[in-house]
Amino acid sequence: MLKNKFHLIISTLVLAFTLGSIKYANAESIILASTTSTQNSGLFDHILPAFTKETGITVNVVAVGTGAALKLARNGDADVLMVHHKTSEEKFVKDGFGVERFDLMHNDFVLVGPDNDPADIKSANSVVTALQQIEKQKTPFLSRGDDSGTNKRELELWHEASFDPKAVSGDWYRETGSGMGATLNTAVAMQGYALTDRATWLSYKNKQNMQVLFEGDKRLFNQYGIIIVNQNKHPHVKRKEANSFVDWLLSSKGQSLIASYKVAGEQLFTPDALK
User: Fold this and answer.
1) Exposure check for the chain: N or C terminus, fewer CB within 10 A?
2) pLDDT band at residue 113 under the 50/70/90 scheme
3) For position 116, which CATH number holds?
4) How many domains in the chain?
5) pTM as predicted
6) Which domain holds residue 30?
7) 236: helix, coil or strand?
8) Residues 102, 113: one domain?
9) Which residues of 116-149 are buried (b: 16+ CB within 10 A; e: fewer)?
10) Where are the beta strands (DSSP E) in 198-240?
11) 3-state secondary structure of 166
């Protein structure tokens, strides 16, 4: 417990130092609060240099879980928010912290696990049935447990499966409190199942005998939204530069760049706002 608290304190200090350094870096820069899954996919390395080259505006990404990204934006520690839990995003705007929400792009979630598939989720006719089979077999399931968009969706799916995994936390259901990559590493080590976004899975290098075992349910749709933080709440928000960034992402140029990003020949994100 003390070790976990120590790590939390260190992580908080590092994040605070990073935010402080970014905030005063230069006038032609903005802070984007986004998700570890988007960062881990490599998308930002693909699209942000093109935006900076065209506009001269640098985008500094703070990649955390969706819950933490929303908190940063609510506190005024970001100019733009890009996350993937629409209900939370709409509440963020409704509460006055965001100017307007736009659908930016989407992909999907998948259930991954060891190739011997001990819970036989390949045979499931829905993601709900797949989770029920994992619960019945008590096969290890690795959850991010970090209030990220992936974690929020996972818990919603368990609720649809009429099961509260928190009741068995620490048993066959394990919460890593980490990002998607670290959670997948734990799943590999424990030969357990995990819910992950497809983009992170395609970019993930340590698959070993793990594979996608369930996909395609409409409940696994994974929508990303983008929101400018409201300058009326936080006057220091760089509204002009933030507008330039969001307009560029929603333009045909930005959307085409998103569509062109591939790993192993597979497109990771489908743009939603082509104009």
Assistant:
1) N
2) very high
3) 3.40.190.10
4) 2
5) 0.85
6) 2-107+223-271
7) coil
8) no
9) ebbbebeebebbbebbbbbbeeebbbbbbbbbbb
10) 210-214, 221-229
11) helix
